[in-house]
Amino acid sequence: MFTICALYQFVRLDDFETFRTPLRKLMVELEVKGTILLALEGLNGTISGSKASIDGVIQFLQDDGRFDN
Helices (DSSP H) in the chain: which residue ranges? Predict the structure, then answer.
């Protein structure tokens, strides 16, 4: 069974280009599919994977501190 997660957050991401690499690496490792757009204004995306994998991506974002709400 797959979980689909739509997410967005308006937050200043001055380092969105360097933030992309560890996020993409994690998504590949967890076999999460989909797209997360990163920009100076924040993120927006829809991803799919096992519940544990989606939880892993969400935890990664929350651990960053800018996406903790």
Answer: 16-29, 51-64
